[in-house]
Amino acid sequence: CCMVAIGALLKNIGFNLQESVFSTFLTYALPGSLVMADTMIIGGSLFNIFFAVWLVNSRLYPMTVSLVPLMMHKNQPKWKYYFSCHFIAVSAWLIMKSNYKSIPKEQRIDYWIGIGSATWSVAVLGTFIGFYFSEFLNKEIMMGLAILNPIYFLCMMVGASKTIQITLSVLLGVILGPIFYFFSPEWSIL
Q1: d(CA 81, CA 138)
Q2: Residue 86 pLDDT level (bands cut at 50, 70, 90)
Q3: Are 52 and 36 in contact (CB under 8 A)?
Q4: Tens digits of residue pLDDT in 164-184
């Protein structure tokens, strides 16, 4: 749903179909796409766009560092690990972290590539659909589609809360997010 909103947004700011789909193909994660579009709207340079997307996607680095050791196996070629890093996104990461213990260690990287390929393909398809149906999506519908992403992540985090750290991070986010909003709306999501 969120990538449908991105497809419509990209069309509305002047991207053609190929640029819209290719941006999701390369960026994949929703926040990076939103930052790219927002920076373009305000007239940012290519360097500004690159730097902004790089900063917002740096949040994926700790997820990569925590996930790759769980999938390492001496019988798997190294190229699979480099290739699979493109599929790091919160949704795929949560699925893998919830299921990795039930998958034989030698097959974990293949399982991860399967999850990543599926979620990535759905994101590209969602962008395509959003681009073509953008005239049917008003501002309120697009905002609703975009807000589904954080709600989905919250639900997945609650479902995966098997440790006190995850449970505490969800609870603190729910409590502190609205409080920070009153002091500084720009920092409330962080």
Answers
A1: 41
A2: confident
A3: yes
A4: 887 888 788 888 888 888 888
